[in-house]
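Worked example 2:
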Amino acid sequence: MIDMARALKTAATTGKVRLGLAETKKSIKKGEAKLVVISSNCPEDDIAGESPLKVVVFNGTNVELGSACGKPFPISALAIVNPGESNILSA
């Protein structure tokens, strides 16, 4: 099992991550997203829609997800476009 918080932080610093519900939906629509992570209190649970994309529910609130990504604000959803040096895609 991977350390999700560490993997998110690594992906956010070394890879390419789209933050927020709107940006996540855009990257899913464009086909850029490789993985979607949503907070446990994300208001929208069917974010990927018909897409076969893997959606991981982060075991924490949007505030905790934001801080796991190293951001000082809450994040309800994010899309991993490029994992960088992170092993998050094996989640």
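The first strand starts at residue 16 and ends at 19. The chain has a mean pLDDT of 92.
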